């Protein structure tokens, strides 16, 4: 009797171990690949991540990373040590890295993806859009009277007052490194060209942020030879279509590119983080846009490893940094959080959304306009499911294994 009970105990222990290992391995597979050059777009309390280039050398995982499309739910609190990503269907998802993205469209519920690289040689589309309401990818028909070509390694800055995305500089096969300003009207779906007089020198991997006065500020980057200084800033007036140049003072950061920029919660300080060839203690600065002065803020919390070729978004009171080079996924989260509450900066692992009664701060100058949605040609006439097939895979596998083991048990002991 004792031997029989021991056998039952061992077999049940084996069953539980197998179920645990299967579920653990499948859950781990749902974690996204480490990546660079992805897009990160915040819309409707979700941070959407598209594509990017895999850091791994495995060509199979590289292909997976390029096709991955997922989001992080920011409507509720989360811990960066235990992130819960939601993967969307990869059917019809464009493969893109080094592209530019922004929220736009008539109802501001659409993600616009411009330019970038594709692993599909036949994919010559300049723009893709993703409608977050219908879960559909669209190739919009945009009036192009200026022979706009695809550019890469640039930033997309949206002005919600006019629904236009401003695309400065970057690189292209036709123009090389450029300093032109492409303007994409996301409401009327038409391209325009900005003024080139007094424009910055050609560059890519720069920093750019929209200010409350509807100027876009640009600085740093790479001109194809070296990293550029951050002692000069360039202001593009989106209302009057003119450029201005200003010298800055203070504790000027070292030359850099592939860094991120966001407008802080005070509406006047631009926070830059990371950059290529930058050390940890030199990774974060703030530019006071009123005094045009750089300074290093007092920051508490555990100092993270420097990153570059990452993305940063303002979500509530947090600067949310996603992926990039410079950290080890096994030791540090894909997401970094800088709490900016009351202009007291703290690196944190816990995200807390703002109270529903409080307005969300934004890098835009006003709330997006509300308009009526118009129809556009879609890639797929059927909405894609938000539920990935990999979500239920662990349950199916575990169930099959348990069934097989029960058959064995019945054969041996019944």
Question: In percent, how much strand structure appears in the residues?
Answer: 25-35%
**In terms of per-residue confidence, which ranges show pLDDT below 50 for 5 or more consecutive residues?**
20-29, 356-395
Count of separate DSSP helical elements: 3
* Second-tier CATH architecture: 6 Propeller
As a percent range, the share of helical residues equals 10-25%
N- to C-terminal separation? 14 Å
Mean pLDDT: 84
Largest sheet, spatial ordering of strands? 22-26-25-24-23
Major β-sheet, in short?
5 strands, mixed
CATH homologous superfamily classification: Kelch-type beta propeller
Supply the number of structural domains.
1
Total E-strand runs: 32
Oligomer: single chain
CATH topology (fold) name: Neuraminidase
Radius of gyration: 24 Å
Keywords: Kelch repeat, Membrane, Repeat, Signal, Transmembrane, Transmembrane helix
Pfam family, one: Kelch_KLHDC2_KLHL20_DRC7
Region (Disordered): 364-385
Transmembrane segments: 395-413
Structural account:
The chain is of the alpha+beta class and 414 residues long. It has one domain (33-364): 6 Propeller (Neuraminidase), CATH 2.120.10.80. 14% of the residues lie in helices and 31% in strands. It contains three helices and 32 strands. The protein has helices at residues 2-29, 59-67, 393-413; strands at residues 35-36, 39-43, 46-50, 53-54, 69-73, 78-79, 85-87, 100-104, 110-114, 127-131, 136-138, 156-159, 164-168, 171-172, 176-177, 181-185, 190-193, 207-210, 215-219, 232-237, 242-247, 249-250, 260-263, 269-273, 284-288, 293-295, 299-300, 311-315, 318-322, 335-339, 345-348, 350-351. A five-stranded mixed beta sheet has the order 22-26-25-24-23, with no helix packed on it. A hairpin with a 4-residue loop joins β25 (284-288) and β26. α1 packs antiparallel against α3 (393-413). The longest helix has 28 residues, at 2-29. The protein is globular and about 90 Å long. Mean pLDDT is 84; it is low at 20-29 and 356-395. Residues 364-385 are annotated as: Disordered. It comes from Rhizophagus irregularis.
């Amino acid at each position: 009797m004792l031997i029989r009970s021991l056998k039952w105990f061992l077999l049940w222990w084996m069953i539980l171990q197998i179920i645990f290992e299967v579920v653990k391995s499948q859950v781990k597979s749902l974690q996204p690949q480490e990546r660079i050059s992805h897009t990160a777009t915040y819309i409707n309390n979700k941070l959407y991540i598209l594509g990017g280039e895999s850091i791994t050398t495995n060509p199979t995982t590289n292909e997976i990373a390029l096709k991955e499309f997922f989001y992080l739910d920011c409507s509720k609190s989360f811990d960066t040590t235990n992130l819960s990503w939601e993967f969307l269907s990869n059917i019809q998802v464009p493969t893109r890295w080094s592209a530019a993205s922004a929220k736009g469209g008539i109802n501001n519920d659409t993600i616009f993806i411009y330019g970038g690289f594709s692993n599909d040689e036949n994919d010559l589309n300049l723009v893709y859009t993703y409608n977050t309401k219908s879960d559909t990818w669209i190739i919009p028909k945009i009036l192009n009277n200026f022979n706009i070509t695809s550019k890469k390694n640039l930033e997309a800055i949206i002005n919600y007052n006019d629904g236009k995305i401003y695309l400065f500089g970057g690189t292209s096969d036709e123009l090389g490194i450029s300093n032109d300003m492409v303007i994409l009207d996301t409401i009327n779906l038409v391209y325009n060209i900005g003024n080139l007089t007094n424009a910055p020198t050609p560059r890519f991997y720069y920093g750019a942020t929209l200010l409350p006065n509807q100027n876009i500020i640009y600085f740093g980057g790479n001109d194809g030879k070296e990293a550029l200084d951050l002692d000069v800033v360039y202001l593009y007036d989106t209302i009057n279509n003119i450029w201005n140049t200003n010298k800055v003072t203070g504790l000027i950061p070292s030359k850099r590119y592939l860094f991120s920029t966001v407008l802080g919660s005070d509406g006047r300080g631009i926070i830059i983080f990371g950059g290529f060839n930058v050390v940890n203690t030199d990774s974060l600065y703030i530019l006071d846009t009123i005094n045009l002065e750089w300074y290093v803020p007092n920051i508490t919390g555990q100092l993270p490893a420097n990153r570059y070729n990452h993305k940063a978004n303002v979500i509530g009171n947090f600067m949310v940094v996603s992926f990039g080079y410079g950290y080890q996924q096994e030791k540090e989260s894909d997401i970094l959080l800088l709490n900016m509450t009351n202009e007291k900066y703290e690196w944190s692992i816990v995200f807390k959304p703002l109270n529903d009664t409080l307005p969300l701060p934004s890098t835009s100058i006003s709330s997006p306009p509300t308009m009526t949605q118009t129809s556009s040609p879609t890639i797929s006439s059927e909405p894609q499911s938000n539920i990935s097939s990999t979500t239920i895979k662990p349950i199916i596998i575990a169930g099959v294994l348990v069934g097989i083991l029960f058959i064995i048990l019945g054969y041996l002991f019944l």
